[in-house]
Amino acid sequence: MAHGRITGWATHLPERRLTNHDLAEMVETTDEWIRERSGIGARHVDGKVTEMSTAAGRDALAMAGVDPADVDLLLLATCTSDQQFPASASVVQDNLGMSCGAIDMNAACSGFVYGLVTAMQFSAGGVDRILLIGSDALSGITDWTDRGTCVLFGDGAGAVVIERSADTPTLLGWDLMSDGSAAGILSCEHGGKIFMNGKEVFRRAVLAVEKAGRNALKRAGMNIDDIALVVPHQANIRIIDAALKRLDIPLEKAAMVLERTGNTSAASIPLALVDALNNDRVAPGDLVLMVGFGAGMSSAAAVIRWDPPRA
Ligand code: COA
Asked: Which of these three, 166, 198, 218, is where a domain ends?
């Protein structure tokens, strides 16, 4: 039986870049404060989910050598669809010339890992080629007068192609969770802007990452020491640091793009994953732990064994 594996990847960031110094001219803040409290130095803004997703998806398919017309399913993880409906996935599907099912999935910042776990189930069920994209444009729902939130968020997209061509399963373990009782601490109403209780999100995020990571490893039958690379949701360096300490994973094992992207929600894990892949940080057979958390409060983790594309 064939299993799903990642055979192509790409990312896209919108052109307009805002540094911390730019923000210091918009609200009362400083580069030092933002770096110290979050680890962020710059972010890209003014993106549109359909445009960023189309660009990342096109490049990921080209890398995999997959004709868009041969894609069997498009999963687009986003919480900032360009419009209420149709799904942004339908627009991207048409932009790329695909003829297949296409859906948006909203698990906020956990969306890409939710999508990866879902895609792997489709692969196991016999679906040959899947395009999975994580893409968000948080700049459009950010209150640019609120220094407590506007310094954290940015836009971007990351895409992977999943083909049913591995001899053994690559998804070894996973954990998906939602705690709707905490939905009020991080939210955005239709037509509104992001509301966040930063301290409470921080506290819960650290615990959620630890729990999701441990659960996924347990399901995989693996130990912490088996993990070669962690790809955490890029929200805040202090959250990542605290969570990895609880998991007993050195920070050096983490893929990081936060400093130059900010928190890009569903795009954050694929942006960090692709950066690690492109910098040869993952060897064949390595175990990679991806772990995200976000509004919901949602959390998600996946342990994959890296089975690289064949030449
Ligand atoms: N620049 C300068 N000062 C700022 C500021 C900014 N951008 N934002 C807030 N402050 C001020 C506050 O007004 C407060 O001032 P006060 O003491 O005079 O009242 C002070 O800094 C401390 O604020 P506080 O909220 O206690 O800071 P913090 O250490 O909790 O850091 C966050 C704030 C938002 C960085 C932090 O809570 C966080 O990262 N939370 C998680 C957010 C997150 O990751 N969300 C997405 C999840 S997917």
From this structure: 166
